[in-house]
Amino acid sequence: MSLSPKAQPILDKLVERFGEKILWKQVRSERRAYVAIPREAIVECANYVFNELRGRLSTISAVDVGGGFELLYHFTFDEANLVLTLRCTAPKTDPAVDSITPLIPGAEFIEREIMDLFGLVFRNHPNPERLILAESLPPDFHPLRKDWGEKISRK
Asked: Is residue 88 part of a domain?
């Protein structure tokens, strides 16, 4: 599978700039590419994709993968008809990653939602307050964690 002729140069520039930090890359269709990076590189890579390559942050998604959390930062390139996803993981023993909100203010509410639902910590987030869960809920209540039901049944 390969990217479209308009999309391939975007991935090539990212790989050229961050080759040593890229853990793996995968092209899923002519308009979808995934690039795995260490969580320590997310701000630097997001900055490059956003400011240099001119990608638009569409959303951030998170998944509890058992021993940790996978974070997927989806960037869209409309003219190239490309969605480029930066992918990093944070272990449950240290569920933290640097916030991209200081770089991309539009990430604020998405990161806060992920904080609420998964219990991840976004270091240097300008407003790390709950967004959707009630303040009356226990601080360790994160309903999208795979183990959240176990915590409730033990209480």
From this structure: yes
